[in-house]
Design goal:
The protein has four helices and no strands. It is globular. The chain has helices at about 1-10, 30-40, 40-50, 65-89. The chain has a domain at about 25-50 and about 60-89. By secondary structure, it is mainly α. α2 packs parallel to α4 (about 65-89). The longest helix is centred in the last third of the chain and has 23 residues, at about 65-89.
């Protein structure tokens, strides 16, 4: 259980960054797979944003729209189910 938590915290280094770009081309904006990843690590990222709100965000604002949102929702569902499973151990 501790190893899984340590792994999740280590992977949280891939969180969505601050919105430094005023405009991002759609072909380079985060899409479904980034949304899925950001959704999966959202529980850990949410706690980290409470501790240091200025440096990380759990949702990428400059995304490509619907595909990123769909991936984020799916990832959030997966992420919460993983954390529930870890808690049961």
């Amino acid at each position: 259980m501790r190893l899984a938590l340590l792994l999740l915290l280590g992977l949280a280094g891939c969180v969505a960054g601050p919105n430094t770009a005023q405009s991002v081309a759609v072909n380079v904006a985060p899409g479904f797979w980034f949304g899925l990843w950001h959704g999966i690590i959202m529980p850990v990222t949410f706690v980290l944003t409470l501790l240091d709100p200025g440096t990380m965000h759990f949702y990428e604002v400059a995304n490509n729209g619907g595909w990123y949102n769909l991936g984020f929702v799916f990832g959030t569902l997966v992420g919460w189910n993983v954390f529930r499973a870890i808690r049961r151990l």
